[in-house]
TrEMBL record:
<dbReference type="InterPro" id="IPR020449">
    <property type="entry name" value="Tscrpt_reg_AraC-type_HTH"/>
</dbReference>
<dbReference type="InterPro" id="IPR009057">
    <property type="entry name" value="Homeodomain-like_sf"/>
</dbReference>
<dbReference type="InterPro" id="IPR014710">
    <property type="entry name" value="RmlC-like_jellyroll"/>
</dbReference>
<dbReference type="Pfam" id="PF12833">
    <property type="entry name" value="HTH_18"/>
</dbReference>
<dbReference type="GO" id="GO:0003700">
    <property type="term" value="F:DNA-binding transcription factor activity"/>
</dbReference>
<feature type="domain" description="HTH araC/xylS-type">
    <location>
        <begin position="167"/>
        <end position="264"/>
    </location>
</feature>
<dbReference type="GO" id="GO:0043565">
    <property type="term" value="F:sequence-specific DNA binding"/>
</dbReference>
<protein>
    <submittedName>
        <fullName>AraC-like DNA-binding protein</fullName>
    </submittedName>
</protein>
<keyword id="KW-0804">Transcription</keyword>
<dbReference type="InterPro" id="IPR003313">
    <property type="entry name" value="AraC-bd"/>
</dbReference>
<keyword id="KW-0805">Transcription regulation</keyword>
<keyword id="KW-0678">Repressor</keyword>
<keyword id="KW-0010">Activator</keyword>
<dbReference type="Pfam" id="PF02311">
    <property type="entry name" value="AraC_binding"/>
</dbReference>
<keyword id="KW-0238">DNA-binding</keyword>
<dbReference type="InterPro" id="IPR011051">
    <property type="entry name" value="RmlC_Cupin_sf"/>
</dbReference>
<dbReference type="InterPro" id="IPR018060">
    <property type="entry name" value="HTH_AraC"/>
</dbReference>
């Protein structure tokens, strides 16, 4: 995936871990990339991806994150992750080799992007791949990292259980989110009681089964809306009989209506 500028005349991918700079920045052009997926992989450097347009999801062994417009995801170095893009993605990013004493999140997380952080990423994306160190460029990137360290964590995260029985249920739910089966119905499909399913879900995710499904619905809704789907389409895809019932669920979970949520982004 040709996101990074190549120092030679030939276009192509440059492994950011091989670039001898503490911060490697890049841009993502909507006209160059459509929807795509990246299989599980990892980098030695940590990664920041800011979404300007479209939506991106990141999956690790223990969680799923949705990144809508005006948000970003932070992926610590060494984290095995898979990326999936919905719609045409436009944004900016950076690979960061953390220096001793740098305080940045130790786990994968989505973050709310401040106007300053966004402008710093846009400006940094125009730097040469092998920019001169020790001057204005290095100072700008140091401010970028300071702004990143102070960014607020966003809420579009879904913890994923490891229990095989739960994963079988969750795989089906994620493939067929319109299935509105009850807790007991889902439990019977894997030979569990409803109490066992609820206990396992709470122990492994910190959420009740119902709260987990609600959070998944909100995340999928944000992803589809950012990809250009209408609220009516999203409500139907999630199995809601009407737009008002879907909007009520979304507002209860996110504190804001789906239309206003996307308009603000």
């Amino acid at each position: 995936m040709p996101l990074l500028r190549h120092p030679s005349p030939e276009p192509g991918w440059v492994d950011p871990d091989d670039v001898p700079r503490p911060v490697v920045t890049y841009g993502i052009a909507a006209e160059a990339l459509g929807s795509f997926e990246l299989d599980p992989h990892q980098h030695a450097k940590s990664q920041l991806i800011l979404v300007q347009r479209g939506a991106l999801s990141c999956a690790t062994e223990n969680g799923l994150w949705i990144v809508p417009p005006r948000s970003a995801i932070w992926i610590p170095g060494g984290t095995v992750h898979a990326i999936k893009v919905t719609g045409e993605l436009e944004g900016y990013g950076a690979f960061v080799a953390l220096a001793d004493g740098t305080i940045l999140p130790a786990k994968c997380c989505s973050i709310a992007v401040t106007p300053l952080l966004r402008e710093l990423l846009i400006r940094a994306a125009s730097l040469p791949l092998l920019y001169e160190e020790g001057g204005a460029n290095s100072r700008m990137l140091a401010v970028l990292l300071d702004e990143l360290a102070s960014a607020k964590i966003d809420a579009l995260h879904l913890p994923m259980p490891t229990d095989p029985r739960l994963r079988r249920i969750i795989d089906v739910i994620m493939e067929t989110p319109a299935d509105r089966g009850t807790l007991d119905e889902w439990a019977r499909r894997t030979g569990m009681s409803g109490r066992t399913l609820e206990r396992l879900m709470s122990r492994e995710t910190g959420m009740s089964f119902g709260r987990w499904r609600q959070q998944l619905a909100v995340m999928l809704a944000v992803k589809w809306l950012a990809g250009g789907a209408s609220i009516q389409q999203v409500a139907a895809n999630l199995g809601y009989e009407s737009v008002p019932s879907f909007a009520t669920m979304f507002k209860k979970a996110a504190g804001i209506s789906p239309g206003r949520y996307m308009a603000e982004r």
